[in-house]
Design a protein that fits this description.
single chain; alpha+beta; Ferric Hydroxamate Uptake Protein, Chain A, domain 1
Length: 184
Amino acid sequence: MISRLPLVTCVLFLVVGAAQIAAGQTDTTKKAGTIAATPTALPTVIVAGRRVSVPSRFEDAYRRAARGRGVYFTREEIEATNPPDLTALMFRVPSVQVNDRGVTFEKCQAGLPSPGSLMQGAHVQVFIDGRRASLTADDGVRQLLQSIPISTVQLMEVYNGASRIPGEFVNDACAVIVIWTKSY
């Protein structure tokens, strides 16, 4: 059996040496297989930030976003990506297909019934400012997303699977899109 101790020592020596070079500590001396470095004072690091105040009507949405169960698009991300409409944001959501016929969630295409009903097929549900939107056709999700001005959206939550949907939005959907508009 070959001992790995020389290999580990060599790797450790290289890592320590690289860290010292990166930190500007080139004054090293080798003493009996150990490395002794001259202590170097590092510059002070100042961390700056800003306190973000979230309006009370968005607190639950940002709390859900912190849990990471869905895909979230904040106002800042929307402005940075500059999409033409909300449908364009859906291209960034895993297991979602967007085309001229509509917005399709992979989890909704399995032919399984909705979680709340044994008879109906699973479908996507959209909520706007916490209220359920009525969708009349299969391509209703796409039409609804295209009809909402992108400049009015503060946060968009997308849950692409029944197990990811938060309790307050569980009904008969296999996927949920929650849109929060700005308060003016």
